[in-house]
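Might you be able to review the protein record set out just below?
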Amino acid sequence: MGMARELGVVVVPLWVSFGAESYLDGIDIQPAELYSKLVKSKVFPTTGAPSPGAFAEAYDKLAQETDEVLCLTISAKYSATYESAIRGLELRKRKNCRVKVIDTLTTIAGQGLLVMIAAEEAGRGADLDQIMDVVQKSIPKTHTRVCFDTLEYLRRGGRVGTAQAFLGSLLRVNPIIGIINGHTEGVARTHSRRKGIDWLYNFARGFDNIRVLGVMYATTADEAEAFTQRLGSIFPAVSIRRFILGPVVGTHIGPRAIGLALVERV
């Protein structure tokens, strides 16, 4: 939410539910509370997309300030959020404002970086069509990788994707998961957390034309800070942002995930 305020971006939050108790991500529940409940609660949480009405309300509010709106959603393969955003277009009261919706085919920091790029382009005076062009060209240039201690949370939440093959024999393995073409894929097995972070570092080193880079973490802030500084030593001219993985994402990844996302220049 902090980055959204900084960029002047409106967030339509998703839901997290523990049984009968439901919370709006980042509003009714914060990351620290989610991770605590995730470990302690006997009830495994579920997550839900915003309603089409929530999107329509956001579009109408923005229509009082501008005549062009771009909505960037998480991958439709993970959530009904994109569908709700599209359906919300028909529920608007203020239809004099031009609104476009793009499925980013990613989530977490990858989506966050695309939002940053869109905001940067808007700040430079680009119009809606120009911003959409940059975002759509940047989507296939967006790469997200996450190191896990366990895939149990992904399995429970039904988001394990092709990483299903990594389950069952991972007592001493830290798997690396990628978000590729909008869904979860297993990309590597490492044999310690340190080697997992080294894998992420070497993955980033393989790119020489990075526009923006992000480090994401759940509960290990000091580790993320050290990783950010390490990346900064090889990419001194690249903007590196840190993202704390919020409640909805945290439900599916668990408390000790760490990862990175980057977007190549187009």
